[in-house]
Design goal:
- This protein is α/β, with parallel strands linked by helices.
- The chain has one domain: Rossmann fold.
- 20% of the residues lie in helices and 37% in strands.
- It is built from 3 helices and 12 strands; from the N terminus they run E-E-E-H-E-H-E-E-E-E-H-E-E-E-E.
- It is globular and about 45 Å long.
- The two termini are 27 Å apart.
Length: 184
Amino acid sequence: MKDTHEVYPIEIAGVKRDLRLFEVKPGLRIAILNILGDVELVDACAIALAEKLKNTDYDTIVTAETKSIPIAHMLSKITGKPYIVLRKEYKPYLGQAITAETLSITTGKPQHLLLDEKDLPLVKDRRILLLDDVISTGSTLQGMRLIIEKARGKIAQEAAILTEGDRAEWMKIVSLGHLPVFMD
């Protein structure tokens, strides 16, 4: 079956992909980067991000579940730095989790980020690299920042595969590229 959805062609870390356009609200579409299962892209992006971050002094990589887990895992493997995944739903084994609320652009609903109690020693008094697949509104990034602050960690750098939209603050994000938003 032929895919008839409109796409945005992009090259990231030397790998070409066609990103499907998705309407997030009437008149506004975004290009969706889904790295889950895309080993070639994840590996290339992790290598490129590791190179861009080689002069950044950090102890731990922190990301939010789900789509950015593969990039955090591969970057951890390359750099030898541990990584933590902030969960989106509380489970009893998370113990006294540290939590923050965010608003996802793709779901349009509030969601929580939770730091597992067992991961606190990897954050407290540590230099943290915040990592996401795509930073669009900054809501997930803000939630991650709040958790690191509550856990008494220090943010060393923020990174993503891509940034999206026209936000001047994205200039300080270490990324491999930028996506426009599409207004109809």
